Amino acid sequence: MMKSVIDADAAKLAGLQIDLLQKLRAGHITLEQLEWFTHLSGDNRDKLVAVNLPASKCVLPTDSRPILSTEKYGMFWDFGIITVPVDFRHATCLGKIREECGRKFNFFHGDITDEKCSHPTRTLKFGDKFHVRIFRQSINATGTMEERMQFLAAQRVVYTGVQGLALIIEHWYDQLPNGYRYNSLDREEALPHLGDYPMVPYLRVLPKGIYEFCFNHFHRVWRDDNCLVCFYECE
Which residue, 90, 85, 64, is CA-closest to 127? Predict the structure, then answer.
């Protein structure tokens, strides 16, 4: 019995090796990405493997909001419980990361400022506790604005706007997997506007520690490399 199990695992491993080589040759995965994944801790690899796990199977601790069923999005990353630190200032956090992290940004949109993004639905303050999880659209899927907002409403998230993303950038940016765009959404009326258009600031994480802070159009169809940063208020 033991031998048959080992033989089955060996056959599966051989198939995975062939598949991996094919993906490397086709450019669907790079050596840098593979090296990055193999150096992750076991816990963080488990979080990444959860990318295709339906949200209905994700379990939050009892001190966080429940996650309801959806087929469009899967849990991608889990920061666990975070606390807004004493030095976080809602009114100046975007200017602070522009100044302190400026060298890490290949691009920082000139309209992502404390003045233009000053009125999120929920203002963060020292001592606030949140469970922060990141969800990603299903592979090879696109998502509309209506679907995104329905998902967030079903999750009963706290709408922190770009300040929530700024908090992650300031303290935990180096934990974010590269190759994705991270969006902390808000209700349309609370978003900054470029002209007549509501915009969603997002962080794009590129290989080799390069970052871009840009805008997504709120109403556009987003690709599957867009992720939703979700804040759940702890009881």
Answer: 85
